[in-house]
Amino acid sequence: MSDITSATAAGANRASSGGLRDNAIFKALFVDPWSYRTGAVILGLLNVILLAATSSGWGVTTALTYWGAWIWEILGGNPHSWAYFAEASKPFNNPGHDFLHDAGSLSNLGLILGAALSVLLASQFRIKKIKSGKQIGAAILGGLMMGVGARMAFGCNIGSMFTGLPSMSLHGWVFMVAIFLGAAVGSRLLVKYFI
Amino acid sequence: MAEKTLDCLGEACPVPLVKTQKALAAMEIGDVLVVAIDHSCAMKNIPEWADKAGHNFEIDEVEGGRWDIVIEKVN
Asked: How far is B2 from chain A (nearest CA, A)?
């Protein structure tokens, strides 16, 4: 493990020397990847703060569902009459509930801005090319399946697992078993059809 | 001592790693494989695998966010 870290660090120095990237503290904080342990501890602490501040733990896909429904509304649809929002995801129909008053939407925005900031600080921002039509098809199909799956499970790996498990919710454990089974099948399909 | 380049630009995990494993399996001992990546996770998992499998490797950051991993097949 220590060999890899030093090889990675040596490699990272080659491209752009000089400036902040040569500063050891800056490099450890912003350029080199953090260890899984560091990431886990920070995520755990942030979720505690989020729970204290907004009375609900971290989730991602519920807000994405709202985003989709708001777009549908702009296009002329009426998502407020949907059974899903009447039964399962009630805050959507609360009076005054919009993007700026939805903690999940704001934390998703923060997630995107934070990821952009992180890659910019590391000087690793890059517009990546689309490799093939197959890649587009797989991304759309995968995204749709994950989106539908996350709604059926009332959350994704963040809301159902990362937040569900520490709240001692049984559905988090069921979700975890299911996600391992799904990943096992998915990896086999990936290797068979995509590589 | 053949040298081969594997273009994994624009590809996300775990595709670069699986492609690297496949490509290297088809090569002879002493051959060199250059894997071009622009996905920072692949910059972690490909060297980790190469280290575990006992191959020699080196990482080159060609430009910001673009790396070449040079792997020499040892066994």
From this structure: 23
Band (pLDDT 50/70/90 cuts) for residue A21 is confident
Taking contacts as CB-CB distances below 8 angstroms, the residues of chain B near A123 are: 64-65
- B8 carries an active-site annotation: no
Q: Which residues 131-190 of A have a C-beta within 8 angstroms of B? A: 131, 135, 187, 190
| Chain segment A126-180, per-residue pLDDT in tens | 888 888 888 899 889 999 999 999 999 989 999 999 999 999 999 999 999 999 9
Closest CA to B65 of A86, A101, A169, A127: A127
Question: Where are the alpha helices (H) located in chain A, listed in sequence order?
Answer: 2-15, 24-26, 36-54, 61-74, 83-87, 103-121, 133-152, 170-194
Q: How many CA atoms lie within 13 A of A18 on its CB side?
A: 1
* Partner-chain residue, chosen from B19, B22, B59, that has the shortest CB–CB distance to A8: B59
B56 touches chain A (CB under 8 A): no
What tens-digit pLDDT sequence spans chain B (75 residues)?
A: 789 999 999 998 889 999 999 999 999 999 999 999 999 889 889 999 999 999 999 999 998 889 999 999 998
Set B13, B27, B32, B59: catalytic member = B13
pLDDT tens-place string over residues A58-80: 999 999 999 999 999 999 999 99
Distance CA A36, CA A39 (A): 5
CB A120 within 8 A of CB A76: no
B14 CB near a chain A CB, below 8 Å? Answer: yes
State the distance between the two ends of chain A, measured CA to CA, in whole angstroms. Answer: 28
Is B3 in CB contact (< 8 Å) with chain A?
no
For residues A163 and A148, what is the distance between their CA atoms, to the nearest angstrom?
Answer: 19
